[in-house]
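Discussion board: Methods & Data

I've been asked by a reviewer to show the raw model output for two of the constructs in my manuscript, not just the figures. I'm not sure how much to include, so I'm pasting the format here to get opinions. Each protein appears as its amino acid sequence followed by a line of discrete structure tokens. Is this the kind of thing reviewers expect to see in a supplement, or should I convert it first? Here is construct A:
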Amino acid sequence: MTDVQLISIVLTLLAIFGSILYNRKGIEDMRDVLRAEIKASGAELRLELRDAIAPVNLALLRIENKLDHLTETQANHAERIERLERRG
């Protein structure tokens, strides 16, 4: 094997390894960018979800208050009926 052939093989291998390393660096950079985007999207989704849940929580609180009132009214009616039954 001549020196020219050896140098061309070495240069070819260096080019291949160089492109592999460059490609790997690009993949790592892309991975970092994707991670940052996913974190940003997650934070944005959490804010939107919190804003969407607030009216639902308010509606549930109103329903709970109405149920408490209905329970109280039912207890009062039951008490009145018992008193009326004892009289008659």
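Construct B, same format:
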Amino acid sequence: MRALESLERDHRLLQGLTEALEAYVAALEAGHPLRSGDLSDLVHAFRTVADYRHFEKVEEVLVPWLVRNGFDLDLDRLDDGREDRERVRYLIEVLHQSAERDLNWNLDECQRIARGARHLVEQQRHISARQAVELFPEILTRLEPAVLGQLTEQLCQFDEANAARWPELDIAALSESVLARYATPSQPASSLGCESL
């Protein structure tokens, strides 16, 4: 396995989820029909990939490993990442609460869902970009190959333990099916009673 491939794979899954959530929200805002369960599925997938997999991997494996290997001078940047992750966790919880009322939303709730989802997409993209552009290249240049190999091994062990703990979801298939339904909505009538936002 290539160094940091585990984290990069998470980023690809999260990119697909952000695109799917954006398409869903665009359909919601346009008043197009929505399929029952889609918001719940997206929120569950975000929680599974972002919170339970990627964020825990960063907090339990990556950050401690970096601190042990000389990144302690960069703690401000690592702390900023923690605050960003907490914002995403909060937004996931807000959307989870809304998803429990599946399609029984009034106009105000539709607007809150759209705002929360857009903030989640923006925040998640910010986290992924910051890691990919700032943190990952620095890790690859600062860590010795042997240390980088050990980190890669620890990340793989986390993935194996995580897969045993949480049932595997086909995140890519979920993202693709939601995108297929909402990327180019075909019907202008709303099936959930939310007027045009």
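Answer (T.O., handling editor elsewhere):
This is acceptable in a supplement if you add a one-line summary per construct. For B, something like: The mean pLDDT is 88.
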